[in-house]
């Protein structure tokens, strides 16, 4: 069978966003791997940046080449340090196995290009994207969220910063709280904050109602995004004074 050479270039310009993604698939013969679905984020500013993408489940053996370079400099490419999926049998088999790669020591205010190329016997497909470190900051969620009450209408919500945001004293975090309440079968949610402290007292809540609290963390000067919400912590307010 004559080898085909097909090159598909897709330009997705995300208007208003910072990311410009270029997806390129080069097909030589057989079935090439899909373009990896890569997601990059800085979980501890400024020195911990990771990319991850799911491992395809049912295709021939695929390996990856992950590199990054500065966009406007002479083309020096650095290897992104690859970490294969752990294939941890204790984790649920339905959850996707993720590849990771680490991008150490990125410079501030610099445009980078990441290239994650999936290669198998059928060909290769590259994911290309540009980013600036400042735009992809996203801490891990706050931990140890605790909600307590010593009255019928007041609550104290406390939490701790994510432990792997290691430069907390130089780059402090601020927090948002979201709570959900159920009233006659209708769930509504309320967002509060940002707060720079790690505890908040809420007053004037409704006795007997169930409240579910979640917290997210964002870099104090608004770099990047708020973390994922922490998993909900529920509390039922007493109807009578404890
Ligand atoms: C990032 O910086 C912090 C504090 O300077 C340090 O403790 C940590 O080991 C560094 N992490 C990496 C991956 O370099
Ligand atoms: C991306 O990396 C692959 C594998 O190293 C390489 O063949 C390809 O030319 C790179 N693409 C760009 C646009 O640099
Ligand atoms: C954030 O949530 C998304 C979607 O649920 C998930 O894929 C991702 O792994 C989460 N990230 C962190 C840092 O927990
Ligand atoms: C951060 O630490 C938590 C445990 O505290 C761990 O589960 C998570 O994988 C770490 N995140 C990163 C991006 O290293
Ligand atoms: C908290 O409440 C929500 C909504 O009612 C529910 O989905 C969730 O499972 C509860 N979580 C816990 C830990 O009980």
UniProtKB/TrEMBL annotation:
InterPro entries: FN3_dom (IPR003961), FN3_IL27B_N (IPR056621), FN3_sf (IPR036116), Ig-like_fold (IPR013783), IL11/IL27_subunit_beta (IPR053073). It comes from the Eukaryota. Residues 33-140, 141-242 form the Fibronectin type-III domain. Keywords: Signal. Residues 1-19 form the signal peptide. Belongs to the type I cytokine receptor family. Type 3 subfamily. This is Interleukin 27 beta subunit. It comes from Paralichthys olivaceus. The lineage of its organism: Eukaryota, Metazoa, Chordata, Craniata, Vertebrata.
């Amino acid at each position: 069978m004559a080898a085909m050479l097909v090159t598909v270039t897709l330009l997705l310009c995300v208007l208003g966003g910072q990311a410009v993604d270029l997806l390129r698939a080069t097909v030589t013969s057989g079935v090439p791997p899909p373009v990896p679905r890569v997601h990059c984020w800085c979980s501890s500013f400024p020195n911990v940046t990771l990319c991850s993408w799911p491992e395809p489940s049912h295709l021939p053996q695929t390996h990856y080449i992950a590199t990054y370079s500065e966009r406007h400099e002479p083309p020096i490419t650095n290897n992104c340090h690859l970490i294969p999926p752990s294939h941890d049998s204790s984790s649920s088999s339905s959850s996707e196995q993720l590849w990771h790669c680490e991008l150490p020591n990125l410079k501030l205010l610099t445009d980078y290009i990441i290239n994650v190329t999936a290669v198998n016997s059928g060909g290769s497909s590259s994911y290309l994207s540009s980013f600036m470190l400042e735009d992809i900051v996203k801490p891990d969620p706050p931990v140890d969220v605790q909600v307590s009450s010593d009255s019928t209408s007041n609550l104290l919500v406390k939490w701790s910063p994510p432990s792997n945001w290691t430069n907390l004293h130089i780059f402090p975090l601020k927090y948002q709280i979201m709570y959900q309440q159920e009233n006659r079968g209708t769930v509504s949610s309320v967002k509060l904050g940002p707060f720079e402290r790690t505890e908040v007292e809420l007053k004037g809540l409704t006795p007997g109602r169930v409240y579910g609290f979640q917290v997210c963390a964002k870099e104090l000067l608004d770099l990047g995004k708020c973390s994922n919400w922490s998993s909900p912590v529920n509390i039922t307010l007493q109807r009578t004074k404890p």
